[in-house]
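Table 4 source record.
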Amino acid sequence: MSLYSDHDSVRSAEWLSDNLDLFRTDDPEYRLVEVDMDPKVYDEWHIPGAVQIDWEEDIIDGLGGNVVGVAEFEELLGDLGITDETTVVVYGDKANWFAGHAYWVLNYYCHDDVQLLDGGRRYWSMQGYETTTAVPEYTTREYSISGTDESVRAYEEEVADAIETDTALIDVRNPQEYRGEKPPAEIPNTTDREGHIPSAENIPWGQAVDMDGTFKHPEELREIYGNYVGDEAIAYCRIGERSSITWFVLSELLDVDARNYDGSWTEWGADEDKPIETVEPAAPTGGDHS
């Protein structure tokens, strides 16, 4: 059972399993959306009633802070049978990396009623809940974006200002990337420069979730991120999707004044005029061999 059932931003898998019929009709009041990096994941199985968003094709317009445009996003949501009033529940693989980014984009474009499925695909599968390969079709609806909520987004200039102010910078990548080493094979190598933004603290995104993909207990999250409660914080990663999870935890679960720097390291590292820092690997220790 989700520890965050009382949060408007979270839906538990248990609740969704009990209420799947709400999401299997053509009525636009509810819509379930799966968001993955690899679209083939959805084809293998998905939750009944769920429509698909291809993160790379539908959510971003190239890496480095290029969110999908207004007209394209309106058309995408309308084609999925979503209106301005629809309750949208998003989920995906990799503990909701890409679903978290879609959640953030929906917030950025001022969609009022959007929630993240706690645990995503991983938890749903572990619990043995119903799955399908059937692809639903819904009536196309009218969707109109009224504006943007700039309070959830950080830009390159604001990150540069944060280095000199009290605004905290949180690098959510793994320590290898933070230190400035070549990223692991599963992480896209998007820049020639590696390292981290000066003054940024390294708190990998995975510290926020348990092995089953669900968010950790509130007390554990406060231990991890307690230094930022009541303050301003900017989260970043390499292309903005992992940092969306940390932004979600800070903003939606801990009420921190947080923003996501979706340009992230791809944008920052590519700008030769922007300062970076690296960390030398710790020297190996050994016994006395004299």
